[in-house]
Amino acid sequence: MPERSDRAVLACYAHPDDEQGVTGFLHRCVLQGVRVGILCATRGEVGQIADPALATPETLGIVREQELRRAAAVIGVHDVFFLDYRDSGMAGSPENADPRAFINADPEEAVGRIVKVIRAFKPTLVITFDESGGYGHPDHLAICRWTTEAFYAAGDPSRYPEAGEAFAPARLYYSSFSRSIIKQFAAFLAQNGIPSPFPDVNPEQMGLADERITNTVYVAEYVDLKRRSLEEHRTQMFPNTALSALPAEMWRAFRSVERYALAAGVPLPQDAPEDDLFAGL
Ligand SMILES: [Zn+2]
Fold it and tell me: For the domain 8-265, what is the CATH superfamily, name and number?
């Protein structure tokens, strides 16, 4: 085991499996002795169920909590925090109206719950979705907004004094698939007559705009480990999705690179290597 550094990373997401976009970087951090935690706002309790033998709508939340814990353990992460909100469902679904839904949370309270985890875990870096939420899921937009607020509030002793001693993380990063990759996928699907998995979302508004990417992390050596982590989300392993139609090479290339945009905090030094999110800290 490497020596444990005083550095830490907290990845803040909305549903079990949202963390899959950053598992390569998180694993590399673990190997470097960096403490890594995953915060998950909900248990994804209103998702679809790939195999009815695995869960029912009533048990899906607890099953997906276990799936996230196993997926995290595959990449060496054992600190998993839940905010205990309910999955709000896709935009326009009846679940949006549930008072327990994450999107209906009192913003002050939701930010406070994230602040409490930040102050206890003391991450150097906080990572969350970019403002597009990847593809616009309302919970993804909410976790981006409220994690961003919590990033600032955690270091302010006048905010949430009951949530622990103030602690200011050094940097906030947004991560998502790059827009150019989404457009490549969309073009491939269109050429092959495969319907888009997100027909209502304009690819021009999906993912992280390439010009905002400040850091690129190459994780080809962890692609198989990332796949094993992904596959722990068994209730979400649907056969024959549009994405499973992508050629293996295209999929592998996609999973080999992770993109990050510095959103707040200490600026990167001018000569910082593109794969060093801690540069200059
Ligand atoms: Zn999600």
Answer: LmbE-like (3.40.50.10320)
Hey, what amino acid is at 88?
Answer: S
Domain boundaries defined on the chain:
8-265
* Per-residue confidence in pLDDT tens, the chain, 281 aa: 556 679 999 999 999 999 999 999 999 999 999 999 999 999 999 999 999 999 999 999 999 999 999 999 999 999 999 999 999 999 899 999 999 999 999 999 999 999 999 999 999 999 999 999 888 899 999 999 999 999 999 999 999 999 999 999 999 999 988 898 888 888 888 898 888 888 777 878 888 999 999 999 999 999 999 999 999 999 999 988 877 888 888 889 999 999 999 999 999 999 999 999 999 99
Residue 48 Cα to ligand 1 midpoint, Å, equals 12
Has this prediction a pTM greater than 0.90? yes
**CA 214 to ligand 1 center in whole angstroms:** 23
Instruction: Provide long-range contacts, Cβ within 8 A and 24+ apart, for 196-204.
Output: 196/242, 197/241, 197/242, 197/243, 198/135, 198/136, 201/135, 201/136, 203/179, 204/179
Residues with CB under 5 A from ligand 1 (ion): 14-15, 18
